[in-house]
Structures are given as C-alpha cells and as structure tokens.
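Appendix B. One record, verbatim.
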Amino acid sequence: MNYWLKSKLIILSKLLRYIKYRKGHQSGFCSVCGKQSFFLLDCDNKKESLRCIRCNAWMRLRYLSEQILKEYSTDGSKSLRELVNEKHFNSLNIYEAQAEGSLNTILRNCPNYVCSEYFEDVQPGESYKNKRCEDLQHLSFPDGTIDLIIHTSVMEHVRKPLLAFKEQYRVLKPSGILLFEIPMTDLNKKELREKSIMRLDTSTGEDKFVLEPVYHGDPLRKKGALVYTDWGLDIVGILEKIGFNVSLESHPIKSSSSMSHIVIIKCVK
C-alpha cells in the first residue's frame, strides 16, 4: 500500500470514529492552549479522547495542565500557554518524561525544560532520533537539580517502579514537585482500585507474567507499551515511604466512559 493511500485511509478512519461518537463531543475552554475550543470524542474512553481541535490535548492532559496552573500560577494565568510567560515558572528546571504531545509543544518555551523518551540499548542522557533518552530507573540528572517533574500514564509501564520513584525523588530539589497522572480504574468499573497489582514478576533477571499481557498504545512501539503495574490507592503509602509528602486528587468523569476517573498525584520532596 502506497503512502498516499495509507494516509487517506487513516484520515477516513478518524472521521468515521468522530461520526460514530458525535453525540459525545464537547465544547469549552482548553487549559493547555488557552482557547475556546471543541473537544472531539473518538472512543469509549473519554480520558484518552475528547481532543482539543486547536492543540490536540486530550482530557487527561488538560487535567494535568489545570493542576500545574493551580500549583504555579502567581499572575492569574488560565492556561499553560500563559503560564510559560510567568517569570517564576519560566525560570524553573522542568523535566517531562515524554517528548511528544501538547504539553511538550508549549513547555518547550521554557529555557530550562528537558523532555525525554525511553529507548532500549540507549544510554540515559544520550540522543536517539533527535530525542533525549532517559530511563526513569536510572536518570542521568545530578542530585537535587530539578524543580518540577511531570508525566502522564507512564508509571504503569516502568519495570521497577519503586526504583523509578526513588530516582525522581533523588533528582528533585528540596521542595521540588513530582506531578503525574496515572490510570487507577479498571475498564467499565466506577470504583478506584484499592490495591496495586503487579502484572509481572520482575524479581529475577527474567520477567515472568503473573497476569495476561496488556499493552497500551504507544507511538514509538508498534506492539504498544507493556503494562507492568495496575496502580491502586496504596500508591500514596508507597510514595510516602520514599520521603514524599503526597496528595491525590481523583476526578470522576461525569458522563459515561470506560475509564471512570482521572487521578492526579502531587509529591513534594
């Protein structure tokens, strides 16, 4: 199949999904780009959809953006695009553990912003395909150098999450903040998961599946990103044992959605 035909089929597929879910489209203000916008639904999982037609930020990114604004705006900024022009925020050392997306596009305007992806067989801190590589389990940053770490739907894919959280604690400055979104509900269930579930046994050199493999969509990997942990509310205690001061905000999605909540966790060193 040639490239032209393939691209046309992708566009047609998206249009058909937007038509299928047309009753779920919404309008409102986007906290990422700062525009009155229209949010397009293309699947049953509203957390991973309702994309802003102006900046393509889907629901969970807008909720994380709102939390960043709440934490850092001193001049009344209403969007992330405005916030990056505030003097204090613009001076922060910010690390995002993702190198694509709507937040990335805007945060690049901050002079001390660093973003990364994880690539196997690439050393942390090195570049691959014009993207910085970082392994959350072995970050290349010196101790106490980062003001803010952000990521969304990342920690479920980390092989040794406890080690990764300790690394993030290590590189944060005193009073630095780790702010992240994480899935914490099962499909088509309304309750938050109480206890975290390890889907693989990683205690030896060879990973062993405890539960059936689950992969989430990943633009860098055709097969998707393997899920190692289904996180639950006990993550708060896990983070507190590392030394963080932790607060968790759960936002129920008001209308029907296969994922019923958006969970944002704030960790202060």
